[in-house]
Amino acid sequence: MSSKIAPREAFGRTLVNLAEKNENIVVLDADLAPSTKVTYFRERFPERFIPVGIAEQNMIGIAAGLSTLGFIPFATTFACFASRRVCDQVTVSCAYPRLNVKIVGAYVGLFVGKNGATHQALEDIAIMRSIANMVVIEPVDAIETEKVVEFACEYDGPVYLRIGRDPMPQIVPSNYSFSLGKGVLLKEGKDVTLISSGALVEDTLKVADNLEKEGISAKVINMSCIKPIDEEIIVKAAEETGSIVTVENHNIIGGLGSAVAEVISEKYPARLKRIGIRDTFGKSGTNEEMKKKFKLTVEDITREIKIFLG
Amino acid sequence: MRVKIEDIKKLEEIAKRLRVKVVKMIGKSGFGHAGGSMSIAELLTCLYFYEMRYDPKNPAWEERDRFVLSKGHAAPIFYAVLSEAGFIPEDILLTIHHPDSPLQCHPDMRLCPGVEVSTGALGQGLSIAVGMALGAKMRKKSFRVYTLMGDGEIQEGQVWEAAMSASKFKLDNLVGIVDYNKLELSGRVEEVMPLEPLYEKWISFGWHVIEINGHSFTQIMNALNMAKNIKEKPTLIIAHTVKGCGVSFMEDKVEWHAVSMTEEQVENALRELGCSQEEIEATLLQMKEG
Q1: Contact call for residues B233 and B130 (beta carbons, < 8 A)
Q2: What band does B2 get if pLDDT is binned at 50, 70 and 90?
Q3: How far apart are CA A136 and CA A226, in angstroms?
Q4: Is B160 within a domain?
């Protein structure tokens, strides 16, 4: 396996590469540039880098205004601030008029360094996905992040990008191309389907390996595009495996698990288990400590699935 | 159409027509933000018929000046302005508030020509205007950006984030106007949440500040002209106004924020605004037609 790269690192590098060719790309930063990795952009294109200070609401409005002139603004901060803090600004100033604003939430779910509950984003997917006109994407690794940022630049409309903090191994193939509204099949299986996104995809693949050793054949889907969601791949999984498990770095209310539940309950009722943060706030600690505390280790997830499958 | 500074009579006629249209729209719809529409009749008249460059036949003309109605609930008079300026036909004004109308309760840029951005959630317009003015600088464009805020509106914290950023970015192509009519939905601004000392607040945020009577055409025009000579900083015009101005029974009355109007009230308002008996009767008939 090649070396691990953090999605935020890939995000920062890709923005610079795209901006070399596209002079409409501008970046707004709410005082978190070293963390969100838009420092690369700041160094290369200082004239297109707009520091707004610790003022996320104003940042979203400025981005909306810039977009009306044909700029492609990337408004960058932590996911908690990009969603909770500016929910109304994103809704009314960007999504309602379908403006071409890209909202980037880096540091997602439980995995935010040791910053703890105030900085963990366990609600951002629920918030963003319930806003009309909004596209919601959580790329899994460096390659997918690059493709997703390219997509965001080409797509005319508001997009929320959920960008992970920590290094990830390569998950998608090297010749990967991103398609809006398409899930990515990572592994075939016939007994159960595991659907995940972002930082827990790597562990979900390990869970599938564990299950395989115990004679349970698990299909694994990387659902990077959370809205619009790939109904076809979900229905097909429900048909083929009967049972579905979602594994998410988010509250199980309103996130990926809910999105999958909405699809199968309407289109093809099947058994579903949602694994994630069970409607509680997080804590400060390392990623490993978080996984232990919130029962999201590979062993925990494997055990839960076995109980679920009976 | 652009009116010369000497020709204030024409501007007065336009402002009166705008107020008449507002009464007709609210009368027909059975709802509307009357007070905060009436208070800005002269301000909008000066912006659209004296100051700003635009082309109603080509609303997307790149060099046009931009106007952001941050206090989006003053949509009735904004729509009246857009019809007067030729962006929308006058006959759609009475469809205001209908689900299928381009004239939603708060302006929708995707539905109504001449609306630069969708507004309505208070406190967001100045940030958007900052983005436009900053973008103009980055693109080396000479157009100017105007935004009109309510006095109650600037209780929103985002306004002050935007105020800080506009002076940091030295946006001398940006003019903010505060419609200081001293009333907000639930009471008098000074009681609900005082803004004073307002002049000093904006000065301390790095703006050039001009304080005027917001119903005086000469003072508004002078302020807009002065703003063009201010370099390296944005200009804020504090426009002292009277909520409901032009219709005596609405003036300075908190209960005329968002209202329905009886036939009698419509009749009295139109009479006061100088409408003929024939025009009044036609309006009342339209109201009855449902």
Answers
A1: no
A2: confident
A3: 5
A4: yes
Within 8 A of A67 by CB-CB distance, chain B residues are 131
A93–B117 C-beta distance less than 8 A: yes
* Cα nearest neighbour of B139 on chain A: A69
Instruction: List alpha helices for chain B, DSSP H.
Output: 8-29, 35-38, 41-46, 75-85, 125-138, 157-168, 189-192, 198-204, 217-229, 263-272, 277-288
- A7-163 in CATH: which number? 3.40.50.970
**ipTM of the predicted assembly exceeds 0.90:** yes
Task: Look at residue B3 and tell me if it is in a domain.
Answer: no
CA-derived radius of gyration, chain B? 18
Residues of chain A with CATH 3.40.50.970: 7-163
- Average confidence score pLDDT of chain B: 96
Given this model, what pLDDT does residue B127 score? 98
Q: Where in the sequence of chain A do the CATH 3.40.50.920 domains occur? A: 184-309
Q: Letter for the amino acid at A179?
A: S
Identity of the residue in B123, B139, B161 whose CB atom sits nearest the CB atom of A55: B161
Pick from A55, A65, A97: which is nearest to B131 by CB? A65
In this prediction, residue B289 carries a pLDDT of 84
CATH architecture of A184-309: 3-Layer(aba) Sandwich (3.40)
Per-residue pLDDT at A1 exceeds 90: no
| Domain presence at residue B2 | no
| Of A165, A218, A229, A227, nearest in space to A189 by CA | A218
pLDDT tens sequence across A236-269: 999 999 999 999 999 999 999 999 999 999 999 9
Q: How far is B131 from chain A (nearest CA, A)?
A: 4
Percent of chain A residues topping a pLDDT of 70: 99
Identify the CATH number of the domain in which residue B23 sits.
3.40.50.970
Domain count, chain B: 1
In chain B, what residues touch A54 (CB-CB under 8 Å)? none
pLDDT, tens digit (0-9, with 9 covering 90-100), for A97-106 = 999 999 999 9
| In the predicted structure, residue B1 carries a pLDDT above the cut 70 | no
Q: Is the pLDDT of residue B5 over 80?
A: no
Tell which of B63, B106, B124 to mutate to test the A interface (max A CBs under 10 Å).
B124
| Stretch B119-148: mean pLDDT | 98
| Cβ contact B135–A68 (<8 Å) | yes
pLDDT of B290: 66
Instruction: Indicate if the alpha-carbon torsion angle B11, B12, B15, B16 is positive or negative.
Output: negative
Q: Do A93 and B126 count as a contact with CB atoms less than 8 A apart?
A: no
What pairing do the DSSP bridges indicate for beta strands B183-184 and B187-188? antiparallel
The domain of B241 spans: 8-288
| Coil/strand/helix, residue B280 | helix
Q: Which residues of B touch A98 (CB under 8 A)?
A: 110
CA distance A51 to A45: 12
Q: Domain for residue B95, yes or no?
A: yes
pLDDT for the residue A263? 98
On chain A, the residues whose CB falls within 8 A of the CB of B134 are 50, 62, 65-66
Considering only CB atoms, B116 lies closest to which of A26, A47, A68, namely A68
